[in-house]
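Usage

Read records sequentially. Each one opens with the input sequence:
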Amino acid sequence: MTATLLAGCLVLATSCGAVAPAERASAAVPAKPPAVAEPVTPTPTTGPKKSPEPVKPTGNAINVHKVRWTKARAVSKRKVQLTWWSGVAPCTVLDHVKVKESPKFVTVTLYEGTAPKARNVSCIMIAIEKTTTITLKKPIGKRKIVDGSK
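and closes with the structure output:
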């Protein structure tokens, strides 16, 4: 019985290679002309925003803390635009901005926190650039703008 089984395996093993590779290919795949691909119109992709996202203070955030800003730019004699990196809303929102003016300095402190409606919300951990504009009591003049969070 073992000899019969061994002989059967030997026949199967040798018969698999009996057909020439060219004959197997032509028998298995019928000859067709190559398919012509239709032109593909590329769809525009949306990349990251080029400019910071403008935000306004909400005033009702929880777990409020100071945040460093990265850039301050005077947009008029009494208006200053602040730019900083932050998280996505509602997990990270601008609560309020504190401005202290003196003859030589304008100290600006940003305060962020979590919106109350974000209690059971999952937010992605990604940094986005945000901006807000503040109005000063007096023109900026030659005063230096200082980050109050430092």
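Summary fields computed downstream for this record:
- The two ends are 89 Å apart (CA to CA).
- The longest strand covers residues 105-114.
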